Amino acid sequence: MTTQPQFLTKIKQSLCPPGNGVFTVNTAKERKAALHQALYGQTDNIEALWSESLDTLTTSSKAVILGIASDCGGGILRGANWGPLFVRSTLLANYPQINAFDLGDVRVIPHLLHDKYLNQPTISNCRKALYQDPESKLAVSPLTITEDVLHDFYALYPDKGIFGIGGDHSISYPLTKTYLQAKKAQGKRCAIIHFDAHTDLLVERLGIDLCFGSWCTHILDDLHEHNHLIQIGIRSSGKPKEHWESTFGVRQHWAHEIRENGVAPVIESILAQLKEQAIDELYVSFDIDALDDAFASATGTPEPDGLTPDEAMAILTSLAAQYPITGADMMEIAPFTDSSGKGAISSETTLKVGAEISAFLIEQINQ
Fold first, then answer.
1. What is the Cα 22 distance to its own chain's centre?
2. 97-128 burial, b if ≥16 CB within 10 A, otherwise e?
3. For residue 332, what are the domain limits?
4. How far apart are CA 125 and CA 129, in angstroms?
5. Residues of the chain whose pLDDT is less than 70?
6. Can you give the CATH number for the domain in which 275 is found?
7. Which of 75, 131, 235, 250 is deepest in the core (most CB within 10 A)?
């Protein structure tokens, strides 16, 4: 088992300060500086300040933020790699009282997804670039780094919970997989509450099995039962609800059901299922496109006829009143992407509702 000193050494290599997960030279330099000023009270020597802060992880809050600034697993409109920087900044501006330890960002080489897709010479070159050591044993791709770091995190800090900020939704693969495996080892029965316009239940997309459209499929066996994946807000699918539920054994609540019947029956149904199946804890994975595009258009795949923020919050608050939320993520916010024609207003609106939901989930992890 990895010891705490070994883990701290690993994350000081595999991660970087909050906001620095996007590899840039000058782009968004001022935004990164503003985030660092808010977090550390200065803009100089951030690497050293962040590294020193990691030594206080043991005594920190239960909620721990991890940014994964990768959109390599997406495939429609890109730009979700800026999510961790912008969501953090909005959280700090709108919810200054928020209590969460910021672990930093995964170090992202923007061309990579998972180490299993790479040959050994490429892995060696990337290890040289990231760690100045081609013989290093550390992972180099964002999904693999995330999984590696979080396996150790949960082993060392079983009472803490990760709030992941993406990035495209492929990132939820390592976030949920490590969570579910850790909770199983603790004897906990957990459900994944997945808000999304899309099912993300492809087996593969263009030959790639781990991506924004397929990550759910590959965590099903880490659940006690496949129907412990509960999907809310689905509406953009080439196949009907019956196909997904019968093929994969999941449970879905489509957006039109809420439109037609209101949110109360969906809440009642989910709570009844959780009780019947003796669920202990919840993980919430929130793709911002679960919301109607009138509220969340700064994303790679905005969709009409979705949930309102009030409906999403009604579901979350009702679940949280009866079940602990011990892990969560916010995905697919792409601040520079505008499908609405409203420019900056689109980004601000999306970030505002994304931060509201994120703040609530972080607060719940801290309970």
1. 16
2. ebebbbbbbbbbbeebbbbeebeeeebbebbe
3. 4-365
4. 6
5. 25, 339-344
6. 3.40.800.10
7. 250
